Amino acid sequence: MKKIVLLFCCLLALTAQAQTVTKTTHKKAVKTDAVTTGTVTIRKPDYICISVDNNKDQLIMDGTQFTMTMGKRKHVTDSKKNAQFVTFQQVLTAVINNQPIPTSEELTILTKGGQKVITITPVSKKRQLFSSFVLTIDAKTSAFRTLRMNGRGEDYTEYTFQGK
């Protein structure tokens, strides 16, 4: 039994990556950006949890389900029901699993300076939380570098990942 528990713990440690993350929230109407730190946990095949400000703010992708908690407000959506997140979920899953990034009319990929900049601009403009997503990854290792979620106007939330 102890060997099974030890094996399970080793497998979990191998499949989960934890690293530090910094969240910057920019609001055009506010003079100073809000900056908080936390952790990001990634588990194959399709789980990401970004937790900052002592777990007050979280962004979780668990398969096709997305949960965003900001203070006491919680938003839950599923890429199966919300077209804005379909390509976003497919790209994140491909990057986590080191697979080719799927093609889409909503997607552009630029490679520069050893990094891939993946921009997802949803075609549907109805009731969107974000106008676009910009994910920067290391071209060789597929490690996350930044994730920027652009809101209306000049507002955005950007996560900067620091590797181990």
SSE blueprint:
Elements: H1 2-15, E1 16-26, E2 34-43, E3 47-52, E4 57-62, E5 65-70, E6 73-78, H2 86-96, E7 107-112, E8 115-120, E9 132-138, E10 144-150, E11 156-162
Antiparallel strand pairs: 1-2, 1-11, 2-3, 3-4, 4-5, 5-6, 7-8, 8-9, 9-10, 10-11
Q: How does this structure look, described?
A:
This protein has 164 residues and is α+β, with helices and mostly antiparallel strands. It is 15% helix and 48% strand. Strand 10 and strand 11 (156-162) form a beta hairpin. The longest helix has 14 residues, at 2-15.
Briefly say what this structure is.
The chain has 164 residues and is of the alpha+beta class.
Q: Which radius of gyration do the C-alpha atoms yield?
A: 16 Å
Strand order of the largest sheet: 6-5-4-3-2-1-11-10-9-8-7
Strand content: over 45%
Please state the structural category: alpha+beta
> What's the helical proportion of residues?
10-25%
Order of helices and strands: HEEEEEEHEEEEE
**N- to C-terminal separation?**
32 Å
Number of helices: 2
Overall pLDDT confidence: 85
- Tertiary shape: globular
| Biggest sheet overview | 11 strands, antiparallel
How many β-strands, per DSSP? 11
What are the segments in which pLDDT stays under 50 over at least 5 consecutive residues? 1-16
